[in-house]
Design a protein that fits this description.
The complex is a heterodimer. Chain A is built from three helices and twelve strands, in the order H-H-H-E-E-E-E-E-E-E-E-E-E-E-E. By secondary structure, chain A is of the alpha+beta class. Chain A has two domains: 1-100; 110-261, Thrombin, subunit H, CATH 2.40.10.350. A six-stranded antiparallel β-barrel of chain A has the order 1-2-5-4-3-12. The relative contact order of chain A is 0.12. Chain B contains four helices and no strands. Chain B has helices spanning 2-22, 35-46, 53-67, 75-94. In chain B, helix 1 (2-22) runs parallel beside helix 3 (53-67), helix 2 (35-46) packs antiparallel against helix 3 (53-67) and helix 2 (35-46) runs parallel beside helix 4 (75-94). Classes of the chains: A alpha+beta, B mainly alpha.
């Protein structure tokens, strides 16, 4: 009797479940129970989330310190990278400008960076040397095709550039508009003058002075500066004129060395 | 008897809600303890030979497990009832309690 009762109950349960699953009643039952449970479930869920958050924060304090240090390191790395990129950007812009001017068509150039300036002695130190194919007496110009000077000493990785305003600097130049030739001499302290201008030639302030190919020191047509003050004397054979160098001493960060012309 | 079933019903209902809404936040290595199964096993282990509470608790907790899971109704009921029957059978045949 007892066994028969148990079997009957079990059968009833199975029949009930089969009925529930085969008809839409199953989903209705589930839906009703969910509806009834929602408020309690919400409360349980919120409380659970709060408590677990609390414990998670405690367990993560140790990690936060490590993470913070890692992020600081990463930030420093990125700052360093950023600086490099900025420098590359400047270099890129300069190269672009020089391409626009067409410098690369006229000359075989190499881009150099100034790493030291000694303006009082009219010298610059650049970051390329014999390893990069530089040698003595090569002309150095800016991206605007303005004369800077020439290389006077070459080391393996560095070179010294004598500015055109150095006392020992002297080269042939011309005022192309008037066909007047002369010799530009440095005076030191960023000063220049044009010498050996015949007395009969008319020059005036603002005339542009460029290099001439006469001495073979520099290629022709590189801007030197403009006439600032004319010194004419009847006793002397030639006129002299002070030149305002076109070179801006503050913008000597990136330069070009002319390897061939 | 009815009172006992009612108490079991309410207790397992609350336990199911607790398990499905509260305990899910405290998983350890991706595992959430199945309180319903544990309760069913414990009740069946510790109830007297003549009591039917184990079977009722298996059926009720199985039902709630089914409602709050994706399985069809009856899936967990059958599993839990089988476990309950097995424990009862094992105790009856092989374990002599005093």
């Amino acid at each position: 009797m007892k066994i028969a009762f148990k079997v009957a109950i079990l059968t009833l349960i199975i029949v009930l479940f089969v009925f529930l699953n085969l008809t839409p009643v199953s989903s209705k039952v589930k839906n009703a129970i969910y509806l009834l449970s929602t408020p309690v479930q919400k409360w349980f869920f919120k409380t659970g989330a709060k408590i677990s958050d609390f414990f998670e924060t405690i367990s993560e304090i140790k990690n936060l310190k490590i993470e913070n240090e890692e992020l600081k390191l990463r930030s420093q790395e990125l700052i360093a990278q950023n600086l490099i990129l900025k420098e590359l950007k400047t270099e890129n812009e300069i190269l672009r400008k020089s391409l626009e001017i067409g410098l690369e068509k006229e000359f075989k150039l190499i881009l150099v960076e100034t790493i030291g300036k000694d303006i009082s002695q009219d010298f610059l130190l650049i970051n390329k040397g014999s390893k990069d194919g530089l040698s003595k007496n090569l002309p150095v110009i800016t991206q605007q095709k303005t004369l800077v000077g020439k290389i006077t000493e070459v080391y393996e990785n560095f070179s010294k550039v004598m500015l055109l305003t150095d006392k020992e600097s002297s080269f042939d130049a011309e005022i192309p508009e008037k066909g007047i030739y002369g010799v530009v001499k440095g005076r030191g302290n960023f000063k220049l003058f044009l010498d050996l201008i015949p007395q009969d030639k008319e020059i005036k302030e603002g005339d542009l002075v460029v290099t001439s190919s006469l001495g073979g020191v520099f290629p022709r047509g590189i801007l030197v500066g403009e006439i600032k003050e004319i010194k004419k004397s009847d006793v002397e054979l030639f006129q002299k004129a002070e030149i305002q160098p076109a070179l801006d001493i503050k913008e000597l960060k990136f330069l070009f060395v002319i390897l061939e012309w | 008897m009815v009172k006992k079933i009612l108490i079991l019903f309410i207790s397992f209902y609350i336990l199911t809600l607790f398990q499905s809404s509260f305990l899910v936040h405290f998983h350890f290595l991706g595992i959430v303890p199945n309180l319903l199964l544990i309760s069913v096993i414990l009740i069946n282990l510790f109830e007297s030979q003549s009591s039917n509470s184990g079977l009722f608790s298996a059926a009720i907790s199985g039902f709630f497990s089914d409602v709050f899971s994706e399985n069809f109704l009856g899936f967990h009921v059958l599993i839990f009832l089988s476990i309950s029957f097995f424990i009862k059978y094992f105790f009856k045949k092989h374990v002599q309690l005093f």
